[in-house]
Amino acid sequence: MQNSSKKHMRLSSFIRYILLTISTFSVIYILVSATIGVKMSYSYWFDELCTVTAVSLPFKQMLSMLTVDFNPPLYNFLMWIWVHIFNSSEIVCRLPSLIAISAGLYMFIITARLLTAPARYYVLILVGCTWILPFYAQETRSYALLFCMSSCTLYFFLKNNTKVTIMFATVLGLTHFFGTIMSALILVWILFANLRNRRIAIASIIAGIVIVIWPVTLLLFFSLGNKLGGNFWIVSAGPLDTLAMVLRAVLPIINMRFSFMLAPVSVMLLLTALFTFGIITVKMNCLKKVKKIFQEELLLTQKVAYLVSGCIIIPLLIDLHTPISQPRNFMVLIPCAIIFIAILMGIIAKSRVIFYVLVSFFLVMVYFYSLKITHAELHVKQSPLQNWRTATQYIVELRANYEEKLQVYYLIPDKTKWNNLINNYYLGIIGNEEVYASPLYYYEIEQLPEHWIMLYGQMSPHKFCKRLNTADIKYQIYYPPQALTNHVGVIYSDSIHK
User: Fold this and answer.
1) CB under 8 Å to 337, separation ≥6 — which residues?
2) pLDDT tens figures, 440-481
3) Could you tell me the strand order of the sheet in which 437-440 lies?
4) Minimal CA–CA distance to 479: which of 467, 471, 490, 469?
5) How much is the pTM?
């Protein structure tokens, strides 16, 4: 018995060493890959240009632009300060997202220490299974801050530090609409847990009022109401589509398409996991041990299960009326979902040494397979997604090599100030404000001069090109190197020769 016990201890120590090594590598890989992406300073894509052009404006004008964006304004307020202190270059504007992801991961590591081994190691390995963190660590949008605030709020929530939790929950609710959902869930928990404590109860109610001021204002006085009932740009095929987005954000390897099951190794690993759970169900004495282990982390499990279920069910119900879910929005869910999964896997692993081996082996294999997904997503991101800068550079070179001054247009769905700022952003930088693009509708082809250049990036050019063909106007198209092949490009009259 003693020899068997020593062997088990040695095996457990060896596995713990492997898990610690991989969990450390997981965090380092996220930070290094994100840092490399930020340093590459590749072109903004459309969503980033929305942020950069808005925060580059005077403060009052920025506020008017944010009523169209709909998301709570905290991130844009912070970026407005950042841009006016420094500048709006790609590396400078993406740096806050990298800092936010780094801070969020730090809080995530601290949160993992609240768990017992091996769950604390599983947490850091699981966080490396999602591509979404290094992806949005190099994007000028609010998603990195959403993850950071979610991680901070979750830590203090699990630590029962109520006052600090309320503070971070308020900040989380002002970061993103999905942050508002998680913030509301936490404030409701705090309210009902502290009904006899008037100060805490009142503080949670005030925090709730603060986070709903923005959406209520947009709903009553601006155009948010017009987007309800399926009039938003996001499309959902139903509840299963929402769940697929959750899985794509948290554990993309098991998204609703189950594409990973095409790999024979993954099928074997899945069957191994199911077999393991089957054994646990059959062996009642093992179930008793599982229940005992479960009691040790009961409150933590209850809290994260509450947040996970709420952050999935509420968007799912909203999607039935007005689709709002996208994988990136569920970054708010990553901390609590991963903690929840790690706790469950840890409970199983601690019940028997053989389960510890099987669960750990399964998780390590999932992690290394997930690295392929992360690498592929980052390659697309850094290609870049849309190459507005190179397309604009092409326009500037066309004009420079032509004797006459060529009129530049941009194809748009509507003549708004934001569209004008987005399409002229890189022209103002590369062309030194000497080149200015004017808006052009599909039906304005007859107004085109003999020699012209058109930038497009918000609408497909096919309808426009079809009208050009109908009017027998000769043209050429230039597509810059980018992942989304024909999303951004330059159409110009055939009479222009570079």
Assistant:
1) 246, 250, 304, 308, 311
2) 877 777 778 888 899 988 777 787 888 888 888 888 999 999
3) 437-440, 407-411, 452-456, 489-493, 475-478
4) 490
5) 0.90
